[in-house]
Specification:
Chain lengths: 118, 111
């Protein structure tokens, strides 16, 4: 159990266009989903936290108007990179947490989406 | 001071040896600690979590936590070449439902 999928696994887009990335929990209901970004040889940086039906909470320095997050259901969250630029090229990873109490803090990661903006 | 610190490595160990990975954290209020393994180009995979002081064993992996010293470690016994990866230490931010990741330690197990 605890499988998280992402789509697409990789995408190349032109500068100025928008890209949508989907994150789905396949065999559990995710109370919370998280979006991370990882640049080469660096660690994961949390971008935002989203709960189903609520507005996402963005980390300091992350532009909420540029990175739109929608958490429409307990199994689906989407990240839209608007007006993408080459500096947005990165590995975007979502994770989902489930359960209650302490186990609600265990995060299960999707396979990631590699975005390249040309 | 970074919130979660790890030696970047690489840590090189021979096959069959014990690999010891260390992590320190700054938030004394942290209660939950996680180790993730990340292969190159892949997303992290949860290996172990630990909440209480002391040791927690799962197969070849042992997590050790010392809250007084703000230190958590991961031991990998009988290391295999397939264990070669980057190991990320993550600490649940005290009072918030989010993980703070260290930069990771790259482990190389050579035959």
């Amino acid at each position: 159990g605890a499988v998280v999928s992402q789509h697409p696994s990789w995408v190349i887009c032109k500068s100025g266009t928008s890209v949508k990335i989907e994150c789905r929990s396949l065999d559990f209901q995710a109370t919370t989903m998280f979006w991370y970004r990882q640049f080469p040889k660096q660690s994961l940086m949390l971008m935002a936290t989203s709960n189903e039906g609520s507005k996402a909470t963005y980390e300091q320095g992350v532009e909420k108007d540029k990175f739109l997050i929608n958490h429409a259901s307990l199994t689906l969250s989407t990240l839209t990179v608007t007006s993408a630029h080459p500096e947005d090229s990165s590995f975007y990873i979502c994770s989902a947490s489930r359960g209650s109490g302490r186990r609600s803090y265990e995060q299960y990661f999707g396979p990631g989406t590699r975005l390249t903006v040309t | 001071q970074k919130e979660v610190e790890q030696n970047s490595g690489p840590l090189s160990v021979p096959e069959g040896a014990i690999a010891s990975l260390n992590c320190t954290y700054s938030d004394r209020g942290s209660q939950s600690f996680f180790w993730y393994r990340q292969y190159s180009g892949k997303s992290p995979e949860l290996i172990m979590f630990i909440y209480s002081n002391g040791d927690k064993e799962d197969g070849r992996f042992t997590a050790q936590l010392n809250k007084a010293s703000q230190y958590v470690s991961l031991l990998i016994r009988d290391s295999q070449p397939s264990d070669s990866a980057t190991y990320l230490c993550a600490v649940l931010s005290g009072g918030y439902n989010k993980l703070i990741f260290g930069a990771g330690t790259r482990l190389a197990v050579h035959p």
